[in-house]
Specification:
The structure is a single chain. Helix content is 23%, strand content 29%. It is of the alpha+beta class. The protein has one domain: Mannose-Binding Protein A, Chain A, CATH 3.10.100. A hairpin with a 3-residue loop joins β6 and β7.
Length: 141
């Protein structure tokens, strides 16, 4: 049995540990958009702490598109060391059975065994300014 594109993308991200709830069923790959070649992944940082779910809406109001798992995993695979410098928050969400929205965070721990890890964190929390929110923006000319 061959790997799906989803599994291939995740393997290319070279994570040491991945939250078991980050899977193809909970985070399906977004479809290819007709204008996809006009967009690129961009890291958006905020100067202050921000609330997760409100930040999703704010990013869209700023003209960004949310970055689904396909775009996020491609970006992580192409820039493998970024997550060791600061957390990267994929702007994809999943309703956790415990009753909250969560998002995938690519990060680097302080313990060598968790050098590259992907966790799911509740969007009801505040996120610090170090985190880079992965969004799509129109390509810069």
């Amino acid at each position: 049995m061959s790997n799906s594109l989803w599994q291939t993308l995740l393997a290319a991200c070279r994570q040491v540990w991945v939250d078991p709830d980050f899977n193809e069923e909970n985070f399906p790959l977004e479809p290819v958009a007709p204008d996809e070649d006009e967009w690129e992944v961009h890291e958006r940082h905020f100067e202050k702490k921000v609330f997760g779910e409100k930040t999703f809406r704010r990013l869209e109001e700023m003209g960004y598109r949310l970055c689904g798992p396909r775009w996020a995993m491609q970006y992580i695979a192409e820039h493998p060391d970024l997550q060791l410098n600061h957390p990267l928050i994929a702007t994809a969400r999943w309703w956790h059975p415990c009753g909250f929205w969560c998002a995938p965070i690519f990060g680097g721990g302080h313990v060598p065994v968790f050098e590259r890890n992907l966790v799911l964190l509740s969007l009801a929390r505040r996120f610090g300014p170090r985190g880079g929110w992965l969004v799509l923006r129109r390509k810069q000319k």
